Structure formats: structure tokens, C-alpha cells
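## Example record

The block below lists the input lines for one assembly entry, exactly as stored, with component labels intact.
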Amino acid sequence: MIAYSIPFNRAGLQGSELEYIADAIRRGHIAGDGHYAQKCHALLRETLGIPAAFLTTSGTSALEMAALLLELRDGDEVIIPSFTFVSTANAFCRFGARPVFVDIRPDTLNLNEELLEANCSERTRAIVPVHYGGIGCAMERIMALAEQRGLAVVEDNAHGLFGRYRDRWLGSFGQLAALSFHETKNFTCGEGGALLIRDAAFIERAEILREKGTDRSRLFRGEIDKYSWIDTGSSYLPSEILAAFLWAQLENRDRVQQRRQQIWELYHERLGDWAGRHGVRLAEIPADCQSSYHLFYLLLPDGRQRDRLIEHLRRRGIYAVFHYLPLHRSPMARRLTGRSWDCPVTEQVSDRLVRLPFYGGLRPEEQDYIIRTVQGFYDA
Ligand SMILES: *Cc1c(COP(=O)(O)O)cnc(C)c1O
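Predicted C-alpha cells for the full assembly:
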């Protein structure tokens, strides 16, 4: 095994995590929806300007809740970008929906809104845009098309918490949105997520689905004196110990995001000339987006150079990684759809993309070393 001196990601503490966990235990309630979960819910609601937000055990379970709330049936179609994490598709397909894979835009690597219309059918029920790297999809176009056709929009906002598109928060456009607090995301509690709800009609049922199909949330609020089994559902609540950890991260959101912005901007500034000389494309932020600075990527001219750059960095103790394999070419996609898909941009980007180490605890001298090592690639 190779010991990397600079990992791709390292989970960082913001400072108060252990204190808040101890406090949660002292309070005598460590199951879900306690003091810290309520604080996280309120912060997400108030900051994003939405009527409800619920912590979940993962981003995947937030997407599953969205699928349940939409009451998808066998054969219903859900439009997703092929360039995304497995859960964007799986959360819907496991309830019988069929994925329709749409290609991405070459500039933002987001779902290409120009291709949506042609991929809609009478079976289409929902569109699931993914804000890749924290850059917003063309949400106005996507929402307009969805409205016109009566489709739901579920934003997979696993990357984009606190990013904005045209002065509106990512995760506040669709009827529903999912966040992830996995260790690799900007804010983490190890494993966790949240369901964001903009359409208040979903709130009551979301509470029930999340509480194993019961109305126990109403009992806790004192609205009823016993709770019953009234719907389907599962256990989607994270424990208060995780919520306490997460609160320590969210309460420091400005510091977390400022540090990530600094890292992103330094990569972008110092690699720009080098990239221009060698036909390498860097991650960019379009004028109408404020990024959440989730990741920093380079697009090499071809897949061979990408693989060689990863190897060049690895030999020098730097762990850089590629990203998603096209979902439309996966064994599961073939099994579910039994057809081939035309997503050439996804295929090229998947071959050519590399992500550089990116985490708040990255030390300035480490980032300087990474930048110089990348700049030395074509001279090596
Ligand atoms: C991380 C991620 C998920 C899943 O989140 P988990 O919390 O790991 O379940 C879903 N979609 C995207 C785009 C992600 O990056």
C-alpha cells in the first residue's frame, strides 16, 4: 500500500463537535430529532428560505424519501444526468422508476437543459438535476419546462449547499432537494443528509415516511396522545449524536466556505497559465453562479494524459482522483433500460477529468506543492 502524504480528502473538525456530542448525551436524548437536529433544521429552513428541512441518515435516503413522496410507480421515468453518483439514479429506480440518462453541458458539467424536451415522454414524472461541484444547473429553464409539463423537480444538491444560482440558493428551486453530509462533502457528520422541502404539501407525509410510517412526530409535538401506523416509510432519522456533530460544522459555515473559496481561487489563479499552454481546461464559475466550492477539477486533453497526471502526482505523494463513470454505460443501467444511450460529453469528461486534493485542512505549503507538481507534469 502506498502512503500518500497529501490525501484527496480529510474530514476536518470545526472545534465544537465533541463538546456538542457530550452535551447531547447529557441532555438524555440521543435518538433522532432532538435539540441539535432541531437547530440544524431551523438553520437550513431559515437560511435557504424554505418551509421545511429534515435531517436524514444519508443523501441517498433523502433522495429515497423524495421518490416515496412523488409516489413513483413501475415504469415512471425520471430524467437524470449520466455524469453523477449512483444514488441519483438508484434512489428512484429501487422503487420501480426507469432512469432516462441525459448528457451534460461541456462547460458546467451539469445536466444539459437543451436536451430535456427531447427526452420527455408521457411516462416522465421527474427531473433530477445535479449541481456538479456546487455550480448551479440552469434552474430557470429546468423549472419552466417542468412546470409546463407537470413534472416534479428534485435537486440532487449533495455538492451545492450554500451555492447560489442567479441570487437564489441551490436546493430552493425544486419541490424537493437532497443534501449529503458524507465525509467527502463540505459539511459532514460522517454519514448523513437532509431532505429540503419547498412545496409545503409534502411536509406532513415526509414526517411520516421518516418516522417508519407513523405519525410519531405529531405525538412529540403534543398534537395527539398516541401514534399509529398510517403509511409506508422507513427509519430515516440520524441520531442526535450525528446532529450534534453536524451542528458544529453548520454553525461555522462562513469559515468553512471562506477557506474552501480560498483554496479554489488559488488553484484557479496559479494553474491558469499552465492550463492555457497545454490545452487543459480548469473548473470555471459562470457569471450567474456563486459556487459552493465543493471541488476543483482539471480536464486534460485526453484520457491517457489524465491517467499519466494522476500517476505523476501519486508518485510524488499527492492523491488526485478521477470522478464518476458514466451511469448510462453501467451494468445496472443496461439491465434496467436494455438499451444504449447517447451521452458523448459525459463519456469524454469522465475520461479526462481529475480532481485535486480539496479540504479545509489543506495547509498552504501543501497546496503550493500540489500546484508546483501539476505545473511540472509536462516537463517530467
Ligand atoms: C454524495 C452524493 C450522493 C449521496 O450521498 P450519501 O450521503 O453518500 O448517500 C448523491 N448524489 C451526489 C451527486 C453525491 O455527490
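DSSP finds 14 helices and 13 strands in the chain. Residues 181 and 188 are 4 Å apart (CA to CA).
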